[in-house]
Amino acid sequence: MNQQNTTQVLSPARHFTVLLSPTPRGVRLARLLAIEWMRDHEVSYGVTETATHVVAELAANAATHGRIAGRSFRLALVAQPTVLRIEVTDTRGERLPRVQPSAPEGDSGRGLLLVEALADRWGVEPGPVPRKTVWAELDLLHP
């Protein structure tokens, strides 16, 4: 009998990932799936509410500014013991997001300002070509 000794590495992180269409429907689905995943993994209500807004903004940016016909965007959530990381990857790596002052009467341009205000940390990781990933992290509060 051929037996192998293997070592199982237990990771405290919990992962979720899904590909979605870069459409308003895909953005809505990203938000709804994130809410359900966080509920299933017992993320606190306050963090879930904040993360829902962050997911909605990052997904909307991917569908609006990162859209290429026929290519999806990816939503990933990673919960570690002290941090929830939200990642949205699109296929417009040449268009890196940046916070810009918005016109007071404008209808858009506030998404990254909201992400910056809500997240404990956020940033952009370019690549691999043609992709980029915009990520945000929320510290998890423990009683």
Write up what this structure looks like.
This protein is α+β, with helices and mostly antiparallel strands. It has three helices and five strands, in the order βααββαββ. Strands 1-2-3-5-4 form a five-stranded antiparallel beta sheet, with helices on one face. A hairpin with a 5-residue loop joins strand 4 (121-126) and strand 5. Helix 1 (24-40) runs antiparallel to helix 2 and helix 2 packs antiparallel against helix 3. It is globular, with a radius of gyration of 17 Å. The model has no long low-confidence stretch (mean pLDDT 86).
In short:
This protein is an alpha+beta fold and 143 residues long. Helices cover 32% and strands 25% of the residues.
